[in-house]
């Protein structure tokens, strides 16, 4: 089987087999660009290599030897020949570009004999010995694992002795001396000498490059970029061209457009009289590419021409490596250039305007991460030096403020005009006002879907969570990370996009809706068929959502409205009420507040639908912590503190909280179950909604209220509650009901049984909204609050699961329930509207799924809306 391809046998389509570098070298050769000849050993051979105890099979080795013979002919030189030695580079090249993660060796084919031949045939001994010492250095570290600093130390000492600073000023004798020092370095650290047999060099080098696929750096890079381990790397063997031969030689890297601004025009750096990695390694400071125009004008012109050709050929910004040998330009690599968010967007829009790519293509190139970067404030990276910890990048954006360890202080400080960063071991719904007041949130426990993360994302607030290396003592108001201790009031900076925690104040860059972004979003809106709505709980969120393009509110949670410090006492009063009369009294106080909430939201969403979900969480979430109460009660009793009356009150409270306590609250008395057992709560909410609708309509606001019942599992639940909505509507709206208000009633589908019986439930629903957070929790039987901290991370590490199912929809399992429910629901009621409102509504691959199963819209947090608009367009293409 063919495992070795000469460059002239391959092309850009063969990336999977030849790796990106190999396929692109072949393509460049094919279109006639000056590429030094060579060949590629396939990724297949790499996989075989690992199956066969890291040995090159005889078959593959034979093909390599044959290809070398061809290469010798093409280059007019012989490998290992003392007079005209062929030298080659052995270069790694994976399928997905992993810049700098694996290894490459240059100048292979030099030994004590051929180096003399090279010196003689070029008339340049200094150059020949320089090449040889580079080979010994690279071969030593890549193949034999000798640590690079051993070589670097010897090189430094040599330069000191010679009194020179730059590598290129070292004399031929100096390099010769270094060669013998390197030889003893081999003996000392590898227990062997440098192989003089060039074929042995080649074999060892190819094997080492294959092995570099599994070096820790490459493994880590693959893990964070979701690159499969099975892919393997190809190896490219290419005849050398030399940028280190003299003043008319050099090497450099150029981008066809500026990778940080997107600006059109060559951008890059080069070094005269240097080889390969000198540019990136920072041995010398390279010159900006524009100076090449003055220094070697003919070469510069050729380079511009080649760059333009490559960009047109690949229809994308290219990152190109080149080398100039004695006044001749060679192309050594091209690939799509990495770029930051702003550049990505500008380049994509520019390429459309230049008629290089169609709009669809431009849209497909936008990555979720790009939008995250653009829509949130970021750090001025030049000021980031001291990172004390890195947690999960839970909610993008950067925040600077003073540390506080509790929500009340955060709120207090915000009122005083200070910027606070809320630092907590974890957050609970009780901390919400602190999250709201703070600039950003840092937690030491909890994953990407922990309470803090979900809430912060919803508010577009930067959040770093699960930062396990940070120890937080709320009592002592102190956090420690390694050696560092920070106290309340100390300044700190968070980067929610990367999870970095940085002490002190780092300047921020403002987020901006650039013209390019607006253009791209417009193209997306023209193409997409899925509608995009927002999860928004406050008028502020609603306005943000609308500004970012929301076509309605798909989920307005009402529990957050109950958690503000002014309302919580009344909510507690309502919950702890002895009888219905007392409960009604408390609810009466809440009614006008709720009405006000809804009025403001309706106004903000004038003309667009607003889906309001009735109260969902278990009641005890609004009550004091039972453990703390027990402690307090114990203390009071033991020390006989407080008055008799106070103790009795506490005891009563404890009894009530105890009575509401549940072993599995997420499977307990919540959602519609709550609304059925305590009808007056939902009635108050429904009344508030309709009163607000009435009031707004009078003002001329166009209101489309939709009432959503959570946690339905049986159609009887929805039947009952729907009837109650209609009743209240009748009562509140009276005649208006027929005239102005077309309200809708629907349900969340989040209990598996509801999905299974969708046909029956559809009879009472105008719409279904898939609450995929709970649906995932209940379908997989994973507790959303605990799974990540316990087993989920380990599951993902062990690849038992492809993703965290709370972030990326489990289309195979949970998705099947959704698909079935949509189908059966629409069959029973063709007008049924379907949507998704879990965290997944803002995830690209999940949106793809929503498009496929025919949902009408996705609903996500306001700051995910631009992303959802783009993802919806991508799904439609
Ligand atoms: P990486 O994948 O880390 O970029 P490369 O395989 O591209 O590694 O090679 C490292 C450096 O060596 C690059 O600057 C490249 O241009 C240079 N190089 C590779 N092969 C040759 C060659 N045949 N002649 C001259 N320079 C080369
Ligand atoms: Mg390279
Ligand atoms: Mg739910």
UniProtKB/TrEMBL annotation:
Domain PEP-utilising enzyme mobile: 419-499
EC class: transferase
Claim: Calcium is one of the keywords in the record: no
Annotated Pyruvate phosphate dikinase AMP/ATP-binding domain residues: 55-287, 301-349
Keywords: ATP-binding, Kinase, Magnesium, Metal-binding, Nucleotide-binding, Pyruvate, Transferase
Highest taxon, organism lineage: Bacteria
PEP-utilising enzyme C-terminal domain mapped to chain residues: 516-875
InterPro entries to which the protein is assigned, alphabetical: ATP_grasp_subdomain_1 (IPR013815), PEP-util_enz_mobile_dom (IPR008279), PEP_util_AS (IPR018274), PEP_util_C (IPR000121), PEP_util_CS (IPR023151), Phosphohistidine_dom_sf (IPR036637), PPDK_AMP/ATP-bd (IPR002192), Pyruvate_phosphate_dikinase (IPR010121)
E.C. number(s) listed in UniProt: 2.7.9.1
NCBIfam families cross-referenced by the UniProt entry: PRK05878.1 (NF004531), pyru_phos_dikin (TIGR01828)
PANTHER family from the UniProt entry: PHOSPHOENOLPYRUVATE DIKINASE-RELATED, PYRUVATE, PHOSPHATE DIKINASE 1, CHLOROPLASTIC
Protein name in the entry: Pyruvate, phosphate dikinase
